[in-house]
Write a structure and sequence with these properties.
Layout: E1 2-3, E2 6-7, E3 11-14, H1 21-51, H2 58-85, E4 90-93, H3 94-127, H4 132-135, H5 138-164, E5 173-174, H6 181-186, H7 198-227, H8 231-259, H9 268-292, H10 295-309
Parallel strand pairs: 3-5
Antiparallel strand pairs: 1-2, 3-4
Helix pairs in contact: 1-2, 1-9, 2-3, 2-9, 3-5, 3-7, 3-8, 5-7, 7-8, 8-9
């Protein structure tokens, strides 16, 4: 459909991570391996938590949902990347592209809220252990998880409603490996001066609030740990927090770079590299971070493996 001198875009061509055939073959092997580890690792975490009664606690309840979010998050992007690496052109109609972006923002935001809930859980467990069962009851845990998904939906709708108000004309080639906000704005023939600011404000607010909850929780945790007389008690308290802090640092660092920093401060190639990290690599790293630094999880995985192969 033509409007003036422009053609209204009804579908997008995803250019992918690279157009180099040699790199395509190498990246296919690498990302297939990463995706396999992501799926196997996160499903193992979920299965372990659901099947072992010792993991029926708030912390592992949140971790199982984090693993589910990582599975969905990675699956929204990686299979399309693998098809691109095989040399197939990816063409998505506008509505499918917007649906992919909505889902990515929703689950990405949900992960922020889940990480904040996990920080609060550690705060209660270490700073108020006698009231832990009251403050982290099953009902409250379900409310936290439900609020996390709801918050994800609201933030995703903020982004997507901005996209729905845009008109796309002229080029329909997205210089990215999925439908992301910044590359889509560049294809719009509408005024984007306000639209590119509104989602950043919402995302920035969510990051500030959740980081504040995480930071405040760990300030109180640190104060409590420093007051402990037992070296063993300090070590145990620190060990329960380091995995979570590692996951928080990795995730928040990358999403802040993409969705909060001014778009002029980084190039398209930098955008792609950082996007690979938070959409593909972090979902693979999370189960490794939480399992390799947790003696209980490692022991349970070892026993489960022995049962399977014995």
């Amino acid at each position: 459909m033509a409007v003036g001198n422009h053609t209204i875009v009804t579908e997008f061509i995803i250019l992918g991570l690279t157009q180099d055939p040699t790199l395509d073959a190498l990246f296919f092997v690498i990302f297939l391996g990463i995706y396999t580890i992501t799926i196997v690792g996160n499903i193992s975490i979920i299965t372990l938590i659901r099947s072992c009664s010792q993991f029926h606690t708030p912390m592992y309840f949140f971790l199982s949902h984090l693993a589910f979010v990582d599975i969905v998050y990675s699956t929204l992007v990686t299979p399309i990347m693998l098809i691109e690496f095989l040399g197939h052109k990816i063409i998505l109609i506008v509505s499918v592209c917007e649906a992919q972006f909505y889902s990515l923002v929703m689950f990405g935001t949900t992960e922020c809220f889940l990480l904040a809930a996990m920080a609060y859980d550690r705060y209660v467990a270490i700073c108020s252990p006698l009231s832990y069962s009251t403050h982290m009851s099953p009902r409250i845990c379900i409310l936290f998880v439900g609020a996390s998904y709801l918050g994800g939906c609201v933030n995703a709708w903020t982004f997507t409603s901005c996209l729905l108000s845009l008109s796309f004309c002229g080029s329909n080639q997205i210089d990215h490996f999925f439908c992301d906000f910044s590359p889509l704005l560049k294809l719009s023939c509408s005024d984007i001066s306000l639209i590119q600011i509104i989602p950043s404000i919402f995302s920035g607010s969510i990051i500030v609030v959740t980081v504040f909850v995480i930071a405040l929780s760990y300030v109180y945790i640190l104060i409590t740990i420093l007051k402990m007389r037992s070296t063993e008690g300090r070590h145990k308290a620190f060990s329960t927090c380091t995995s979570h802090l590692t996951a928080v640092t990795l995730y928040y660092g990358t999403i802040t770079f993409i969705y909060v920093m001014p778009k002029s401060s980084y190039s398209i190639d930098q955008n792609k590299v950082v996007s690979v990290f938070y959409t593909v690599v972090i979902p693979m790293l999370n189960p490794l971070i939480y399992s390799l630094r947790n003696k209980n999880v490692k022991e349970a995985l070892r026993k489960a493996t022995v049962r399977i192969y014995s």
